[in-house]
Design a protein that fits this description.
mainly beta; three-stranded antiparallel beta sheet
Length: 185
């Protein structure tokens, strides 16, 4: 301490190390870990994708007990639901099935996670056969439909509503069975 004209100036040196003495709390030993990974933050926190094959980049930051970033950490990445997502060693997750998966980054036995939700959304519908002619009254043809997401992947479990552009020529049942009502010529 240096005294000058009634003013006190306090100086302190910097002590580098892994531990800093703290004031109580915690486990009672008064030591708070600095530079030791205690938490991992994974961002973005919650993400939704609408097509199989879509990717999402996740990042992780290791923090010590004081919330300081602990640099130069090598993370191990995993997905909790391997039927929903895969994740590479750099945190790039790929949607492979519908559902939810935690995307987990770990350093030693410390981990943090974010959630990847995969819910395919129909973008197109393919009908088969695409062109057909019913040549007799009462003749029937079964049609089928497949919904596809933005990347062209089929979406299972979709319900379709069937109709005819001219109910006077052909009738279509709720399950896609078309029946000719008059001769088309």
């Amino acid at each position: 301490m240096v005294k000058a004209s009634g003013l006190s100036v306090v100086t302190a040196g910097f002590l580098a190390g892994l531990y800093v003495l703290g004031c109580g709390g915690g486990d009672g030993d008064g030591i708070i870990g600095v530079g030791i990974v205690t938490t991992i933050e994974v961002t973005p926190g919650n993400v939704s994708v609408a097509a199989l094959g879509e990717t999402q980049q996740f990042t992780a930051v290791a923090k010590d007990a004081l919330g300081n970033t602990v640099a130069s950490q090598s993370f191990t990445w995993t997905a909790s639901a391997t039927t929903v997502a895969t994740v590479d060693g750099n945190g790039l997750a790929t949607a492979i099935g519908n559902g939810s998966s935690a995307i987990i980054a770990s350093v030693g036995n410390i981990s943090g996670s974010a959630t990847l939700m995969v819910a395919q959304a129909p973008v197109t519908v393919e009908i088969a056969p695409t062109v057909d002619t019913l040549t007799a009254i009462g003749e029937s043809r079964q049609y089928s439909a497949v919904a596809r997401d933005a990347r062209g992947n089929p979406i299972s479990g979709q319900a379709f509503s069937w109709s005819s552009s001219d109910n006077g020529i052909a009738d279509v049942s709720p399950n896609g069975l078309a029946t000719g009502l008059i001769r088309p010529w």
